[in-house]
Write a structure and sequence with these properties.
about 1000 residues; mainly beta; Ferric Hydroxamate Uptake Protein, Chain A, domain 1; 29-stranded antiparallel sheet; 5-stranded mixed sheet; receptor
Length: about 1000
């Protein structure tokens, strides 16, 4: 052992006591000695001195401190939980309560508002999903994937998605999802060291988060010196899929005897299978009904808004009654396989106390394969009759003649792959000055290679076999879905699934290909002397994002065999289809347990790949006559359903940002009360270049195969369009902390932060896609000149650490946000097109975003953590109450309605027992109803962008583990034990959009660590 290693043991307590979350404080030796003494008495009211092992925010540690092991950083009150003997005489914290104490230490010593979740030990994170862990924190709620039930994103203080920045070890991570936020279900959680949620900014880390900055800290070799092994293996089953699938992980870490070099490598394989039942309405567009459409009306009915029309002379035909109707209704079963591989390798070189080099690489690849089996029916507002409108204008009962019925199957595949490589160098130039350089390169791919993202098969009956379908809304979206009646071919319910009457309809293949390439560099200098820390530096990153979508919509091949065939008296289509295509059915009886409403009997199970292969086997319609081919609308089809790139979807965005920052942190006294003050400023300059491909349709034609469709046979030539923009902002931050007593802390914080617009909104062209629907023409346009959201943030909080591992906190926050980006929908003509169904100018619902109004968000967070002495029992509880001066106004039917999204009251409770190697936790998570977004799957109405609300949810999760030996433990997990279902609705609560029933999941496994 080299001589410096002996000195390291002497410095361990002193140096690590200096490590803090937002800035490094110098603690006086007498105070440290006093608090260390208190560690021996579990009944003292004086909490132990905070000694955080891992910085919760930007790394202000020196090169020497970076080489210290984490295990010895936090002493343990032996009576308070599980412990293990560490190096020398150190007592190492392990177990849940040890992790909770470390979290409190980091929170308490931070100069800003920070919440932390630490691993209990290497290879043992508290939850199986990053977002699931984060929702235990005050002010943090999760968003779930409907089809999987997995937490995929977070909302912090009402701000979700792009409003939150996620970092890997202080670095931005690329993501090809289409936004700036990451999908948390792509992050392997088994070997994460720590999660930090910064609700007030650290200017040396980032100021690009109006919600919060989440920093995910991964392990390094010198976190746990010596040879370490951690392994985990488990099997899980979802109650509906009935299939056990594996998860396994292995971490190996080693440092040499002199502790100058270390290597760590880990790999995690995760599999989740989920069968989810879904009932959906694709959208509730708003429009105007004619009086003749209402229940009780008699005589002929010709709804019109054309004042020159002869029908307009009759007041009963005039469309002047505002209301909302369902665009498409159906039910489906989704069978999802989620397979993920995560891997990390980290090398550290520490030749002296003055130098630390770290090279690491993080890799993840998630493959989601989804099979969907569904039925769907389509409605047009002008075709509805016998309409009953409730007091809000929702069509709660109506009939529609000529309604076709479609059975669909889809094979969807999404691959999201990310790789990041980074180099970090720390050098202690003097005993006071530390220099740091960090460079990283990351790239993310969505559907790399020749992946087909979605293969769809659509069969059914219509035309002569259409029915006079009745649709009825039977209650609130939180416990009821609509009922349809008089279904079946020509209204014959007994023939609902008569395969002799079913024929081919549309065939859609489509794939989104994205890449996101990110280069970043950070350099800073930190000066620490006594109670003063000064930090200055700069950061640069270049983010290059490429979008491209290809589909059979672009070349119109999707209609190749539309028309349903002979039994429906279609002019095209194949019927009957081979019996070998049908592989069974899914019953829709009791499809969503606990929900009122009724559905038709079943949906078919069939392979879209086999269906498409059958149609291809019929031959090349361009070389020979193929009966059933849609010669009236499709040209260039040679037999295979090849995708074509949609020029309007092609987008390249290059964003370059230069930042300079400076911060000062010092500790002093005000009237003998310890006072910590941190002030910083960050200046960010952004240059942006957005390039798209523009074209406009030259005509609209009706489809001979489907009376609900319109096609665009020709466009103007494609032209490249490039737009440049830039902006610069000064982002100050101030944090003040006053220790009123040894246990009571007052915090005051103020800052300015920003959130950049989503990259997908910056397209400089108008996109008019093929496959338009009659009465539902739509187009979308981007805005490359969008400016960031800006927020002035204020926090006032009080924290009472009344005993070890227990605290009570109250935090008030206020955010004044300007430059809100609003997605308005306007009705307008495009390129002089004429609607062939009306003979008048075609009216498109055009969606486009602009910077608009300001809003204020305010709220309060309450948090309580209590451990009951030596009993092993304890709990965590928190609640967040939030509101705004710009709530949603459901009476506003203008094109530019606006409200703050994501705001909801929430509460979480975790009760636990942790003693003698046995651990049990019950987690209860509640979130009230909230406005998720403006926009629905079908958003073509006259009243702008319709809202999507998420109904309140309440979920109970259970976890348990038992340490069989010091190194080996077994564990179990039961998620969603109360079978919580996720449901959404439109403008009003009875406008159901989606209800997902994704069931319960059970996991049993084992861990080994050495």
């Amino acid at each position: 052992m080299r001589a410096r290693t002996g000195a390291r043991s002497f410095r361990r307590i002193h140096v690590l006591a200096c490590a803090t979350s937002l800035a490094t404080f110098a603690w006086a030796a007498p105070a440290l000695a006093q608090d260390q003494g208190n560690l021996q008495n579990s009944t003292t009211s004086q909490p132990a001195a905070p000694q955080p092992a891992v910085p919760a925010t930007a790394n202000t540690t020196s090169a020497a401190e970076a080489g210290q092991p984490q295990d010895a950083a936090t002493a343990q009150d032996v009576s308070q939980g599980n412990s293990a003997q560490g190096a020398g005489d150190d007592i190492v914290v392990v177990g849940l309560r040890g992790s909770l104490q470390r979290n409190l230490d980091l929170k308490r010593t931070s100069s800003g508002v920070v919440d932390v979740i630490s691993a209990e030990d290497i290879g043992k994170f508290p939850d199986s999903n990053v977002a699931a862990s984060l929702q235990r924190l005050p002010g943090v709620s999760i968003q779930r994937s409907g089809s999987r039930g997995e937490p995929t994103g977070i909302t912090v203080r009402g701000f979700g998605g792009d409003f939150n920045t996620t970092l890997y070890d202080g670095r931005r991570i690329s993501t090809a999802t289409g936004g700036r936020q990451i999908d948390f279900s792509t992050v392997g959680v088994d070997f994460i060291g720590q999660l930090s949620v910064l609700k007030t900014p650290d200017v040396s880390l980032a100021s690009s988060s109006i919600g919060a900055t989440v920093n995910i800290a991964f392990p390094n070799p010198f976190d746990h010196p010596g040879f370490r092994v951690a392994a985990t293996g488990s099997g899980s089953i979802q109650d509906r899929s009935g299939k056990i699938v594996p998860t396994g992980g292995l971490l190996v870490s080693s440092t040499n005897a002199d502790e100058t070099f270390g290597v760590l490598a880990d790999v995690i394989y995760t599999k989740r299978d989920t069968d989810t039942n879904r009932v959906y309405v694709s959208g509730w567009p708003g429009g105007n009904f004619a009086p003749c459409q209402l229940a009780g009306s008699t005589g002929t009915c010709t709804p019109t808004s054309n004042t020159a029309s002869a029908a307009y002379a009759n007041p009963a035909n005039r469309q002047n009654l505002p209301g909302w109707f369902p665009q498409q209704y159906g039910a489906e079963q989704q069978r999802v396989e989620d397979e993920r591989v995560d891997a990390r390798i980290a090398l550290q070189y520490h030749p002296s106390d003055d130098l630390m080099l770290t090279i690491d690489n993080n890799f993840s690849r998630q493959t989601i394969t989804q099979e969907n089996y569904a039925f769907g029916v389509w409605f047009n507002q002008g075709d509805l009759r016998n309409v009953t409108l409730d007091k809000n204008g929702t069509a709660t009962d109506f009939t529609q003649t000529g309604t076709p019925t479609d059975f669909t199957s889809a094979l969807n595949k999404q691959i999201l792959q990310t790789n990041q490589t980074g180099l970090n160098v720390k050098y202690d130039a003097t005993s006071n000055l530390t220099l740091e350089g960090d460079v990283a390169y990351a790239k993310s791919w969505l559907n790399p290679g020749d992946v087909i993202g979605s293969r769809n098969g659509d069969i059914g009956y219509g035309n002569a076999l259409s029915n006079n379908l009745r649709f009825t809304v039977g209650g609130n979206s939180k416990d009821a879905f609509p009922t349809i009646s008089n279904y079946g071919p020509a209204g014959n319910a007994a023939g609902w699934a008569d395969t002799s009457l079913i024929g081919s309809h549309v065939t859609v293949n489509q794939t989104q290909h994205n890449t996101d390439e990110l280069v970043q560099f950070r350099g800073n200098a930190t000066w620490k002397q006594d109670d003063l820390t000064i930090k200055a530096g700069g950061q640069f990153y270049q983010d290059t994002f490429d979008f491209r979508n290809q589909s059979t919509f672009t070349n119109n091949f999707w209609q190749a065999y539309a028309g349903y065939g002979g039994p429906s008296r279609g002019t095209s289509g194949i019927s009957p289809l081979p019996a070998s295509l049908y592989q069974g059915s899914v019953s829709l009886n009791n499809f969503i347990p606990g929900f009122k409403g009724s559905l038709p009997p079943s949906v078919f199970v069939f392979s879209p790949v086999a269906y498409q292969n059958y149609l291809t086997s019929l031959g090349n319609p361009s070389a020979q006559n193929v009966p059933g081919f849609n010669y009236g609308n499709v040209t260039g089809f040679t037999g295979t359903f090849d995708e074509a790139v949609d020029p309007g979807s092609v987008l390249k965005v290059r964003e370059r940002t230069w930042s300079l920052y400076f911060s000062v942190n010092f500790k002093t006294e005000i009237g003998s009360l310890p006072f910590t003050f941190n002030a910083g400023v960050r200046n960010e300059v952004t240059n942006l270049v957005a390039t798209g491909q523009g074209r406009l349709p030259t005509s609209l034609v009706t489809s001979t195969a489907d009376p609900t469709l319109l096609s665009i046979p020709t466009y103007t030539p494609v032209q490249g369009v490039t737009n440049t923009s830039s902006y610069s902002y000064l982002l100050p931050s101030l944090d003040a902390k006053l220790e009123l007593t040894n246990n009571l802390i007052l915090r005051v914080d103020a800052s300015r932060t920003l959130t950049r617009p989503s990259l997908s909104l910056l397209n400089p062209v108008l996109n008019v896609g093929n496959g338009q629907r009659i009465g539902a023409l739509s187009a979308s346009g981007g805005n490359p000149n969008l400016k960031p959201y800006l927020a002035d943030n204020f926090d006032l909080g009080m924290e009472w650490y009344y005993r070890r591992n227990s605290y009570l906190a109250v935090n008030f926050f206020l955010k004044n946000v300007s430059n809100f980006i609003v997605g308005g929908v306007t009705r307008q003509g495009i390129n002089g097109l004429v609607d062939p169904t009306t003979g008048t100018a075609a009216s498109f619902a055009v969606s486009q975003q602009v910077n608009g109004p300001d809003a204020t968000v305010r709220g309060v967070e309450l948090a309580l953590q209590q451990v009951f002495g030596d009993t092993g029992f304890g709990f965590q509880a928190n609640a967040t109450f939030v509101n705004t001066n710009r709530p949603y106004d459901d009476k506003n039917i203008t094109q530019t309605g606006f409200a703050v999204t994501g705001l909801a009251n929430s509460a979480n409770f975790v009760g636990f027992y942790d003693k003698n190697g046995f651990q049990f936790r019950t987690a209860l998570n509640w979130r009230d109803k909230y406005l998720l977004q403006f926009g629905q799957n079908q958003n073509t109405g006259s009243f702008g962008s319709e809202p999507t609300f998420v109904n309140q949810s309440f979920q109970i999760d259970l976890t348990t583990s038992y340490d069989i030996t010091k190194n080996f433990s077994v564990f179990g997990e039961a998620l969603n034990v109360n079978n919580n279902q996720q449901s959404t609705h439109g403008r009003y609560s009875n406008q159901l959009l989606d209800v997902f029933d994704y069931g319960r999941r059970y996991t049993v496994g084992a861990r080994y660590r050495f």
